Amino acid sequence: MKRIQMFGLLNKDMDQIEKELYRSVQGDDELLAETSLHLLKAGGKRLRPVFVLMGGKFGQYDLEKLKRVAIPLELIHSASLVHDDVIDDAELRRGELTVKAKWGDKIAMYTGDYIYAKALVMTSELSNPRIHQILSRAMVEMSIGEMEQIRDFFNSEQSVRHYLRRIRRKTALLIAISCQLGALAADAEPDTAKLLYDYGYNVGMAFQIRDDLLDLSGTEKQIGKPPGSDMRQGNITLPVIYSLEDHRIRGALLTELASIREGHSGVGRAIDLILSGEGISRAEELASRYISKALVALDQLPSNRTKRNLKDIAFFVTGRAY
């Protein structure tokens, strides 16, 4: 999916961030630059930089400061995707071959490490120790989330609570701190930064649930990879967990999941079972509840045009109509 379209002058600022994002991974090693650019140029919504800039609108907006937060956050996100693709043995991302598929596991892992390191180099230019503390802790939490996902591959007995804790670490936390750190870098009030964190956290939770839903109900063109890829990789997501709670389809779904785990076909049949039950609608309902919480936090922020833009983004990333 292409980068989301921004509002007014932020389009121009995002264009500059996009160019500097590419430049940030060049100049050290030809192969690492090539593999990193392959990933970055495949696209993406650039949600994290967008949220940094939006957070900065609640303080003293300074692009030179904000880009030293926005670019590293996008690099950290991108590095985690490279590592994910190795763990998941993924061939496609955003409709393009993954770094792992094109260059192999070893090059992919070093590419992820390189991108992480580039993010840290850029953040070292920031003088606010609070920003470094928040960012470092988030990277630790993301790593824990990755380990939790690996441990739970093909675990059909995992709880909704466990799933939510995992996506908090893997996805929601980075979006939350993007909003928060944008505000802190712009010297916004601490209470404002906290409300932006709450908004970002809830949008991030809804975003990941929606992404997991699309993996089951979207087309390959929409999601840039074959539907059901999560199940193929052993990742049991919320709509699957809810479907396993439905006694009418639980037995048949467990059979198909076991077949998938053994490397046989069954993804299509598993998706059909899930679509026939209430797992999709229950997951959609929970995503909507998270968006409602995000809007509550948003309502408490100081009034400015950015509040409306943040509302628009919340609905955009979750596909919710209003």
UniProtKB/TrEMBL annotation:
The protein's matches in Gene3D superfamilies, at most eight in alphabetical order, are given as: Farnesyl Diphosphate Synthase
Keyword Aminoacyl-tRNA synthetase listed? The answer is no
Name of one Pfam family that matches: polyprenyl_synt
The UniProt keywords, alphabetically, are: Magnesium, Metal-binding, Transferase
The question of whether Chaperone is a record keyword is answered with no
Required cofactors, per record?
A: Mg(2+)
State the family named in the UniProt similarity comment for this chain. Belongs to the FPP/GGPP synthase family.
The cross-references to PANTHER family, in alphabetical order and at most eight, read: ALL TRANS-POLYPRENYL-DIPHOSPHATE SYNTHASE PDSS1 (PTHR12001:SF69), GERANYLGERANYL PYROPHOSPHATE SYNTHASE (PTHR12001)
Protein known as: Heptaprenyl diphosphate synthase
